[in-house]
Design a protein that fits this description.
The chain is α/β, with parallel strands linked by helices. Helices cover 51% and strands 8% of the residues. A six-stranded mixed β-sheet has the order 1-4-3-2-5-6, with helices on both faces. The longest helix has 21 residues.
Length: 375
């Protein structure tokens, strides 16, 4: 592979944007540092035309606004593999949106590929080997080692050829409209804005009492501050299981910290005082200020007819998936099946009004689906 250029100035990014505006197709990928720093961020952007690959260092070149016109131009196809996280990150970090997406992972799913990871696809079609160890590398380090630069470039430089193969196969199978609809839906993904107590987003919090939630909230707030202070992902400060055990035991002194899951003598020595302070703050919270986990209304008795329809639909889905050589979950997910079983549409109009299915699913499966529900 030839020497890969890394752009480190705003002027270079602006110049690249002018060149990309003349292209009809570009391939894009991102590398982030979520496993190595407190606040994850995009650390590298790879862009490949059919002729060359360049890397953008957004830690040095901080003004990426010139790319907006290129990324939002639907006439310029943007190839990603597994675009979901990348599109969310581009919007969050740089306010960049994508129009004109082609996602090779979605394409692989719609073509029934057994393995849809990029490394697997590149090995299968081009005998290219990607070293997966760099997926967990610290992409915020500078300078980047030469082998990491090569790995980053490999992520996009083969995507043009992969699209040629996949687009032809999608057309042969009359599934290009399926892919187009999926791409359009993907373009709208965003990171959800979160607010309110941290503990309400904590796995396992639904089983805790309000007082235990209060203690957990103070522990989580402490961990956030410590992660920010150390510039370390919070899970590397202290694991969730340890914090949950602390919230359940609510120890009154350091001696009671011993034996809790994940709390080694070293961690107790380092954080024992801070943990006890957080627990004490949770215990002292007024009842009116304690977090309250939203409780879902109790479900009524299960409707036997709906349960039976779910079973029938799952069997039907298995048959249709085998016919189309697709993973059943790609064809229709369980939530959609359960919604269909509850609504039980009996006409094309009723099925069209059901929001849980995409247009391509209604077109491809609608007639068979209605016939199955009518039995």
């Amino acid at each position: 592979m030839e020497q890969i250029e890394i752009l480190t100035t705003n002027a270079q990014v602006a110049e690249l944007a002018e060149l990309l505006a003349k292209e009809t197709t570009i391939a894009v990928d991102l590398e982030a540092d979520s496993m190595h720093n407190y606040q994850e961020k995009v650390c590298l952007i790879q862009v490949s035309t059919e002729q060359k690959t360049v890397l953008i260092d957004p830690l040095a070149a901080t003004d990426l606004s010139p790319l907006h016109a290129v990324f939002s131009n639907p006439e310029i196809r943007k190839i990603f593999h597994a675009a979901d996280y990348d599109l969310r990150s581009l919007k969050r970090d740089f306010n960049l949106t994508i129009d004109g997406l082609f996602d090779t992972m979605i394409s692989a799913q719609l073509l029934g590929e057994e393995r849809i990871g990029l490394a697997d696809l590149l090995r299968k079609y081009f005998s290219v080997e990607l070293d997966k160890k760099y997926q967990r590398a610290d992409w915020s380090q500078r300078p980047l080692p030469a082998e990491m630069v090569r790995y980053a470039a490999e992520d996009t430089c083969h995507l043009h050829r992969l699209v040629e193969i996949f687009e032809k196969r999608l057309e042969e199978k009359a599934r290009i409209s399926w892919a187009t609809e999926e791409f359009a839906l993907m373009e709208d993904v965003r990171f959800a804005e979160v607010d309110g107590p941290i503990c309400l987003r904590f796995k396992g919090a639904g089983t805790l009492s309000p007082r235990e939630l209060g203690v957990l909230e103070k522990l989580l707030q402490w961990r956030e501050k410590e992660g920010e202070r150390l510039n370390r992902p919070v899970y590397k400060v202290m694991g969730n299981k340890s914090l949950l055990a602390l919230a359940l035991r609510m120890p009154r002194d350091k001696a009671n910290l011993k034996g809790l899951e994940g709390l080694s003598p070293r961690l107790i020595e380092r954080y024992g005082r801070a943990l006890m302070s957080a627990v004490r703050e949770g215990l002292e919270m007024p009842d009116a200020e304690l977090p309250k986990f939203p409780r879902l209304p109790r479900r009524g008795a299960k409707d036997p007819s709906i349960e039976e329809r779910v079973k029938t639909l799952k069997k039907w889905r298995q048959e249709q998936a085998a016919r189309l050589a697709l993973d059943p979950g790609v064809l229709i997910n369980n939530a959609a099946l359960e919604g269909l079983a509850a609504v039980n549409p009996q006409s094309a109009q009723a099925l069209d009004e059901f929001v849980g299915l995409k247009n391509w699913q209604k077109k491809e499966l609608g007639e068979s689906l209605l016939a199955t529900l009518a039995r």
